[in-house]
Amino acid sequence: MRGEKEFRKVRAHGQVVRHALFTLRVTDYRPRYGETWQPRAMIGIVVPKKTLKLAVKRNRVRRRVREALRTLPGLPPCRATIHPNAAALGAPFAELQAALGQALSGQFKPRKKKPAAPGPRP
After folding, report:
1. N or C, which end of the chain is more exposed by having fewer CB within 10 Å?
2. So what's the pLDDT on residue 42?
3. How far is residue 97's CA from residue 103's CA, in Å, rounded to a whole number?
C-alpha cells in the first residue's frame, strides 16, 4: 500500500483480527482511482517505536512478516495492515506464517464492534 490515505481507509473500514503475534485490519479489495481491476492482496506492515524501540528489531520484524506473506500460497484479494507485536520477533517462523495464513483466510472470527453508548438524555 502507498500513502497515508490508503492506510486511513483500512483503519476506518477494516475488520480487526487480533492474535498473540499481531493485529490485522482487513477490508475488501478495491482498485485505486484510474487503476484496472486486478484482484490482489495489498498489505502494509506497521511497526511503531512504541512496540519495538530499536530500529534493528523493527526492521527485522518487518522482514520476517514480509517473507511469511510472500511465501503464503494464494493470498485472498484484500487491503490490510499488519501491526506485529514484540512476540513476533521471537516466534518460530512456521508459527508466524500459519497464524498470518489463518487470519487472512478468515478462520479467526473478527471481534464485533461494541454498540455505541446512548448519549445523555435531555
Report:
1. C
2. 86
3. 10
